[in-house]
C-alpha cells in the first residue's frame, strides 16, 4: 500500500468555443501508484491540461513536484509521471503486475476517495470481463467490471489480487441513473501495452484499430447470399476507412474469417479463456503501431489471405485533442476552427450526442477521413464588425470551398483542413474572397477590405492573434 500515492493537479483547460483563450484554472486530486523505473501511473483525465502536478506518499505531509512523461488520452489509462526529488522514492517499492483475474475473483481497490485524507482500501469482486467503450477516449478496449462504484478521486488507484499484485487501474463508473454499484478497472494487458508502447517508441502512439466497420453474420439468409458455406463463419465488412492501409486490400462486402489464425464467429467474437468469448477487436488491441497481422477474407466465394500493417488511426472528428490547445484562424471576424469531441462538448454541453446538429452528429458517428490530414473545418462564430454585417448569425457552419474568384464557382478548390484554408485565404489576391458553406450558403467579402479590417476586429475583441500558434509555426504561405 505504500506504493499508492495521491495526485494533486492544477488544470487549465482550453476554451474550445473561444480558442484563443483558456478557462479559469481549477484543482483536482486523484490516486496513482508507483511502478518500476521511478515512475507513477494514474488516469489521463487526472492530469489532462495540467499546469502543475504534485504527488504525496502515504503518511507524508510533503507534496513533491512531478513531471508528466506521457498521457494516454485514448484509453485513459494514464498519465505516466516521475519525480526528480530522490527523497520521494525512499522507502517505496514499486508494485508488481499480476495476471488478468477470473470472474468472481476478489480484488482490493486502494486509493484516496472523497471523505478523508488517508488511504482507503475496499474489497470487491470481478463481475464481468469484456470489451468496453472507454468514456474518456471513446476507445473500445478490454475492461473489468467490479461490483462497486468508483468516484473521481479514487480513480487512478490500483486494484490488487489476493497475492498483492496489481491487476488494473480504477477509472470510471456508470452514472447513478444507469446502474448502482458498478465500476470499471483497466486491466493489466491494457496497462502493459501503454507502458511498453512508451518504452518502445519514447512516446505514447496509441492503440491501432482495424480501419473497418463490420456487420454480424448471424442471419442464415445473409450468409447464404454472401456465398458462405455452412461451416464458414465471420463478419461482413460494411466499409473500409479510405485513409487506412487496409483500404489497399480490403473491400466492402468481404467476409472477415480470421485474424492472425484465430477464427472469428458470426457475432464477431473469438475464444478467450475457458468458457469465455470476447470481441475480436481484443486481438487488434494487442498490436502496436508498425506491427503486421495476417487476415483471411472470403470474397466472391474465394478465400484470400492478406498481411496488413497497423498505423495510428484517426477519426474525422477526433475524440481528443491530445491535451493540445485548439487550432483557429480568423479573417474579417470569421472564426474558423476544427470540430472535435471537446469542441462539441464545449458548444453543446455534456449531452452533445443529443443536442448537436444532426449534420455534425452524422459526421461524428459515420464519417471517415478521405486523407490522413483531413479535418472538419467550421465557421464557429462571426465576430461583430461593419464588414461582417448580416453574417453574424452563422454558427458552426461547415466550410466547403474558399479562396476563389466570386464568379469562378465551378473551379473552386476544396478545403481539406484548417491549414489549407489559412493558406488559401492568405494567398488570395483576387477582388473577392468567397466562402461556400454547407446548405449552399455563400459569404462574399472584398479581399483587401477583409484583410485590412482583421487587426482592428482582433483588438476590439481582445484577441492576441489571428491564428493559433501551430498555424504560425507551419505558415506554408510565407
TrEMBL record:
Residues 317-470 form the Protease Do-like PDZ domain. Residues 15-195 form the Peptidase S1 domain. One of its GO terms (biological process) is proteolysis. The keyword Membrane does not apply. InterPro entries: DEGP_PDZ, DEGP_PDZ_sf, PDZ_sf, Peptidase_S1_PA, Peptidase_S1_PA_chymotrypsin, Peptidase_S1C, Trypsin_dom. GO terms for molecular function: serine-type endopeptidase activity. Keywords: Hydrolase, Protease, Serine protease. The keyword Thylakoid does not apply. Belongs to the peptidase S1C family. This is Protease Do-like PDZ domain-containing protein. It comes from Gossypium anomalum.
Amino acid at each position: 500500500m505504500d506504493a499508492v500515492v495521491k495526485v494533486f493537479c492544477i488544470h487549465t483547460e482550453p476554451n474550445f468555443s473561444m480558442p484563443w483563450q483558456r478557462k479559469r484554472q481549477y484543482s483536482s486530486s486523484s490516486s496513482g501508484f508507483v511502478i518500476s523505473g521511478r515512475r507513477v501511473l494514474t488516469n489521463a483525465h487526472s492530469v489532462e491540461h495540467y499546469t502543475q502536478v504534485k504527488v504525496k506518499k502515504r503518511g507524508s505531509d510533503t507534496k513533491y513536484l512531478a513531471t508528466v512523461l506521457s498521457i494516454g488520452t485514448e484509453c485513459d489509462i494514464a498519465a505516466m509521471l516521475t519525480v526528480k526529488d530522490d527523497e520521494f522514492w525512499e522507502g517505496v517499492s514499486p508494485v508488481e503486475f499480476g495476471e488478468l483475474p477470473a470472474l468472481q475473483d476478489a480484488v482490493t481497490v486502494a486509493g484516496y476517495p472523497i471523505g478523508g485524507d488517508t488511504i482507503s482500501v475496499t474489497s470487491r469482486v470481478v463481475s464481468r470481463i469484456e470489451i468496453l467503450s472507454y468514456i474518456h477516449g471513446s476507445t473500445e478496449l478490454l475492461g473489468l467490471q467490479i461490483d462497486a462504484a468508483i468516484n473521481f478521486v479514487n480513480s487512478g488507484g490500483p486494484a490488487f489480487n489476493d497475492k498483492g499484485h496489481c491487476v488494473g487501474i480504477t477509472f470510471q463508473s456508470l452514472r447513478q441513473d444507469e446502474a448502482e454499484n458498478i465500476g470499471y478497472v483497466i486491466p493489466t494487458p491494457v496497462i502493459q501495452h501503454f507502458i511498453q508502447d512508451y518504452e518502445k517508441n519514447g512516446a505514447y502512439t496509441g492503440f491501432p484499430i482495424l480501419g473497418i466497420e463490420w456487420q454480424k453474420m448471424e442471419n442464415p439468409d445473409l450468409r447464404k447470399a454472401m456465398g458462405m458455406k455452412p461451416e464458414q463463419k465471420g463478419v461482413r465488412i460494411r466499409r473500409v476507412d479510405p485513409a487506412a492501409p487496409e483500404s489497399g486490400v480490403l473491400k466492402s462486402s468481404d467476409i472477415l474469417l480470421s485474424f492472425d489464425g484465430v477464427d472469428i464467429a458470426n457475432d464477431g467474437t473469438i475464444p478467450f479463456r475457458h468458457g469465455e468469448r470476447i470481441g475480436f477487436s481484443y486481438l487488434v488491441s494487442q498490436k502496436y503501431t508498425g506491427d503486421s497481422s495476417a487476415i483471411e477474407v472470403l470474397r466472391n466465394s474465394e478465400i484470400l489471405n492478406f498481411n496488413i500493417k497497423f498505423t495510428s488511426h484517426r477519426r474525422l472528428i477526433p475524440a481528443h485533442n491530445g491535451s493540445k490547445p485548439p487550432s483557429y484562424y480568423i479573417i474579417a471576424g470569421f472564426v474558423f476552427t476544427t470540430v472535435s469531441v471537446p469542441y462539441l462538448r464545449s458548444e453543446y454541453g455534456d449531452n452533445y450526442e443529443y443536442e448537436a446538429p444532426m449534420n455534425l452528429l452524422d459526421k461524428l458517428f459515420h464519417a471517415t477521413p478521405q486523407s490522413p490530414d483531413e479535418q472538419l473545418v467550421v465557421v464557429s462564430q462571426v465576430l461583430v464588425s461593419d464588414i461582417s454585417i448580416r453574417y453574424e448569425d452563422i454558427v458552426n457552419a461547415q466550410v466547403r470551398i474558399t479562396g476563389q474568384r466570386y464568379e469562378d464557382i465551378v473551379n473552386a478548390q476544396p478545403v481539406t483542413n484548417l491549414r489549407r484554408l489559412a493558406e488559401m485565404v492568405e494567398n488570395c489576391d483576387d477582388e473577392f474572397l468567397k466562402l461556400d458553406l454547407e446548405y449552399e450558403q455563400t459569404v462574399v467579402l472584398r479581399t483587401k477590405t477583409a484583410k485590412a479590417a482583421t487587426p482592428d476586429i482582433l483588438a476590439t475583441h481582445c484577441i492576441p492573434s489571428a491564428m493559433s500558434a501551430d498555424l504560425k509555426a507551419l505558415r506554408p504561405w510565407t
